[in-house]
Amino acid sequence: MERSPIEEIKSRLDIVEVISSYIPLKKCGANYRALCPFHSEKNPSFFVSPARQIWHCFGCGAGGDIFKFVMMIEGVEFGDALRILAKKAGVELKPISPEYQKLKTERQRLYEICELACKFFEKQLEGKTGKEVVQYLKGRGINEDSIKKWRIGWAPETKKALIDFLVKKGYKKEEIEKAGLAIKTESHEYFDRFRGRIIFPIFDINSQVIGFGGRVFKKEQGAKYINTPNTLIYDKSKVLYGLDRAKVDIRKKNFCILVEGYTDTILAHQAGFENTASVSGTALTQYQLATLKRYSDNLYLAFDMDIAGDFATKRGIDLAQESGFNIKVLILPKEKDPADIISQDPKEFEKIVLNAISILDFYFQSAFSNFDKNTLEGRKEILKILLPVIKRIENKVEQSFWVSKLAKELDTREENIWEELEKLKLEER
Ligand SMILES: [Zn+2]
Fold first, then answer.
1. What residues have CB less than 8 Å from 32, skipping those under 6 apart?
2. ipTM score for this prediction
3. Which of 52, 84, 287, 397 lies 20 to 30 Å from 206 when distance is taken between CA atoms?
4. Is residue 85 within 8 Å of residue 18, measured between CB atoms?
5. Residue 68 alpha carbon to ligand 1 centre in Å
6. DSSP 3-state of 222
7. How far apart are the CA of 254 and the centre of ligand 1, in A?
8. Ligand 1 center to 64 CA (angstroms)
């Protein structure tokens, strides 16, 4: 009888090898031991048995086989753990049904196209304009290692250099369009979507290239950034840029720094803040929050936030609050983003991270600095911002703390605030 892929993978991989690629293991008699990656401890109570091919932690009780370990350490579902380990073991996973097979093949080809395109863009950095791009990136503080690590590239200013390259590799123009890399004109002509742009590949949680962001370079026309549209493998609302490289550090430090752009993320990692990821457009979605939740409940936001005006940002924060995240805000100097600060002085950014304030404090500060509490209009605006936020707090003790603070600031009775809270209906989601 044929062995199942799970058995096949287990027979090919050694548990000690798999686990030690994540955490350092020390030999201890017939077994190996380590500090448990799943709870914090000073003395190792995490054991691996090569004879039985299992692991167990006597501190927190976690344990199982290699699949369980990868699921927990990567924070992924069983299917993802299966794929990760199958790749490691060189085991091919058989499809479940013909429809799935077709979809799988189509997806697979899109992954291949994205990977090849990424290599193509990287290669272009060696050309004349490519070298200027490298100089530009260095000028922004991104060093050579980071350029390689994040696989930054250059899309030449030609009509279809990439399409020609991919067609030669055996892919159809229709597929290249489906991968989001080609645009079809009304006269059924195809041309490259990314032209004359610095390319930031976007990775999924397993570091596979699934899409691209392109930044203008040396020209005035066109949007500053363009992105791959949603495809079979890329969904903007699901991806967090850099999370694949940040996840281990997020779990280790037990908080995630969220920034706004590619360069912010790259520079943060370069300066040692490897628990940083970014959102495009800053509107956090339910899906992204659920993904982050696998790694930590603590979010530090380093956005440029205008809570009175920016509803998308605020909605994302509301969602995060409702999903039970503890949210802190980094107070950045005016007109500066994390990239500016880090490239000038990483120590300064560290200080800002240490001095992050709670989201409630942030709302209070913003509301009272944006509006005049001594005018009726101002008071209304302040209440409009703060009441919904206070209403969302689940902990009653915490809630009454903020009610009394608000009453004091507005020089009114607490009962009035409670009454207003009672009346307030939160928008349905
Ligand atoms: Zn443990």
1. 16, 19, 20, 25, 26, 47, 48, 50
2. 0.98
3. 52
4. yes
5. 13
6. coil
7. 15
8. 12
- Pick the closest to residue 172 from 110, 90, 80 (CA basis): 110
* 32 DSSP β-pair partners: 27, 48
Neighbours of ion ligand 1 (CB under 5 A): 36, 38-39, 57, 59-60
Instruction: Indicate the SS3 state at residue 260.
Output: coil
- Distance between CA atoms of 204 and 357, rounded to whole angstroms? 30
**326-329/298-301 β-pairing:** parallel
Distance CA 184, CA 171 (A): 16
Q: How many helices (H) and strands (E) are present in the chain, helices listed first?
A: 19, 16
Instruction: State how far the alpha carbon of 229 is from the alpha carbons of 38, 183, 210, 309, in Å.
Output: 37, 11, 11, 27
- Please report, to the nearest 10 degrees, the dihedral formed by the alpha carbons of residues 372, 375, 380, 382 taken in order: 20
Q: What is the pLDDT along the chain (429 residues), one digit of tens a residue?
A: 567 788 889 989 999 999 988 888 999 999 999 998 888 788 999 999 999 999 999 999 999 999 999 988 887 778 888 888 998 888 887 766 566 566 667 888 999 999 999 999 999 999 999 999 999 999 999 999 999 999 999 999 999 999 999 999 999 999 999 999 999 999 999 999 999 999 999 999 888 999 999 999 987 778 889 999 999 899 888 899 999 999 889 988 889 999 988 999 999 999 999 999 998 765 788 889 888 887 888 999 987 776 655 666 777 888 888 888 899 999 888 878 888 899 889 899 999 999 999 999 999 998 998 899 999 999 999 999 899 889 888 788 989 999 999 999 999 999 999 999 999 877 654
Query: What residues contact residue 14 under an 8 Å CB cut-off, 6+ apart?
Result: 50, 53
- Ligand 1: centre distance to CA 59 (Å): 5
